[in-house]
Structure formats: structure tokens, C-alpha cells
Amino acid sequence: MKVLVINAGSSSLKYQLLDPDTKEVLAKGLCERIGIDGHIKHTPTGKDVYDADRYMPDHEAAIKLVMEVLTHNYYGVIKDMSEIDAVGHRVVHGGEEFTHSVIIDRAVMKGIRDCIPLAPLHNPANITGIEACQDVMPNTPMVAVFDTAFHQTMPPKAYIYAVPYRWYTENKVRRYGFHGTSHQYVSQRAAEMLGRPIEELRIATCHLGNGASTCSVKFGKSIDTSMGFTPQDGLPMGTRAGAIDAAITEYIVDQRGYSGKRVESALNKESGMLGISGVSSDFRDLEAAAAEGNERAQLAIDVFCYKVTKRIGSCAAAMGGLDAVVFTAGVGENSATLRAKIMEGLEFLGLKMDPEKNNVRGKEAIISTDDSPNKILLIPTNEELVIALDTARLVREQEAAVKED
User: Is residue 251 part of a domain?
Assistant: First the structure.
């Protein structure tokens, strides 16, 4: 089976063509500047990269271009579109309606549209990507895989905010959590690497990149996570403030004469590591600047690591103990320095980092000492594989059900 995984943004479209049975990536790529001018970078496994400016007025044009390069006689990896058995779409927000991945039909599309107020920047782009694929491949089954679905196992005490309850019942204000496919994947891989059933493990997963979140995965299920109603909550990130006192918004409106929208923009795009350091939102730039003596860059790193350390402690409290910590995503996978700094002071939880084993980038490894009672792991995330596996499973189940009828 071959599954095309689509992750559509407002002006971009990431894709991978995978075989979920062998977990082989046949090709991957990125279409960007859609609706502006257009550029595609297509990377077929074992072949030359196709990197070119190509005009894409809309997402349908981008999908058609993806089909063109996938079936190209030199850059392609399939003979024609009929070899694509299914399409899996990343959808950011599924609200409370979608607790699992689902085959896309009219009712599902309505449900995704109903969640637009909860993710006004993301769900419309996801819908555009789905509709573009449906136009180009009308007979190919499609599946929606939701960032929020993995966290729908959280109990009410973890997701209810202490605000008027009618805000929840009438306006759907609650903790939803994001990065769900990443947290799901790395927790499952951690169990496999440790040779233990996930049903008996308490794992703190740390997805640390430009966007960052932690998750308490108890016996295979998310019971708490740091991101909240939006991806703004929780840890400080590249340009996002993370959790702050809500009254700061009104105070800054009064003190600086900002509108509410201006404050929201500042909290999302001018805060976090960029806001503290004044240097960059990229942790590589921050580490370089800190090494040269930039105190604000060092402060940004200190704040980030301190907040992650606290969140790991919170995970242990939420789960009644801790068996493993997992680092993933750009920073988690590639910065040995930040991983070590985050783990400082957590020895009381039975977590002992091995400096030599920690000296690794971007590959699976157990980086705790051999005698560490609990384990620390580095696991590169693979959200596309999760989407492909879910897509293949649902399509096969649907085909089996049709045959039985």
C-alpha cells in the first residue's frame, strides 16, 4: 500500500509518499509561496532532488504539481496516480468531536469546519488541502488525523479551566493540547525501545522545537499536556510567550495603548525566546550568542530549560511516578547541551543522564546511565508515519467491511 501524507498550511503544502507496511519513505517535499509565486522542493529517495520555482496560484495547483513530480519519468517514484491507495491529512483541531482518526466524508468535513473558531489559522488551510486532493483524486479514500485527538483521553480535572463553566458548555473553552501525533509516536517507540508494554509505563514526552509541549502519557494514554485551548499555552517557545498571567494583556493595552489584537500578535510572534533574547527564535542562534557572552540569550535558554524541567516534574506528579522521559523535535533531538541542562536536578526522580550517551543528534538512543532507575531517551519524531499508519488501517478496515456486506 502507498499512502500520500498531506500537511497543508495557508501558503504551503508538505507531503510524503510512504509505504506504511515497510515504513519506507518513497518521496517527500514542500510546496511553498502558494498563491504568491511558488516554489517546490521534491526529494525522491535514491534520486536527484527537484528544486524549482513553479507558479502555484492555489492549493489545487500545488496538488497537481505534486502528482506531476511523483509520476515524473526522472524525478518520480510511481508510474501514475492510481498507485496512491489513500491520502492522510494532518488536521490541527478536532475539538471534542474527533477522538480518533476518521475516514473523510461530508459529515467529517462539516465537523472540521465547525472547529474553525478553535483554530482559525490552521483548520481553513487543512480544509483547503483536503478539498484540493478531492478535486484531483476524487476516487481515492482520504483520512483526517487530528493533532488534538490523542489528548481526548485527558480527564476533566486536567482539561477544565477555572472559568465560568458556561464558557466550556457554550463556547468550548477547555484544554485541548496539540502535537498529539508526535507524543503518541514517541511514547510508543519508547516502550518498544525499553522492551516493556506501554500499558505499564509512565512517560513524560517532551516535544521541543520552535513550538514546544510536554505530555503525561500514563499507560499509553495522554492524561495531561502543557498546551491548552490554543498552542499558545504552556512552555515558552520560539516566538510564543507560553503560560502567562492573563491580566498582563489588559495591563499592556492600558500601558502601551495596544489593541487586543496587537497584544495577541506580540504574544504569538514577538515573545518567547525572541522576546527575551532580542537575538533570534532559533535555539542554535541563542546557543551561539550565549557562548559569545550575550546575557539575554543565556537568560532565554535558562528560562526555557527551567520551564521544561518544571513540566517534567509536573508530569511525574500527574502520573504518580515516572518511568521514562523522551526528548523529540528539533531542539529535543539535536541539542545535547539543552537536554543536559533540562535534566539537571531531576536525579531525585531516578533520572541520571550519561554525558557520553547524550552526545548524539537526531537518532534513537537511550541517553541515561546504565544504572539509572528510570530512563531518558532521544527519539526523532515521525508524525508522517503515524498519519500513514492510521490512514492505512482505516482504509483497510473500510474495505474489509464492504467485502463482508
Answer: yes
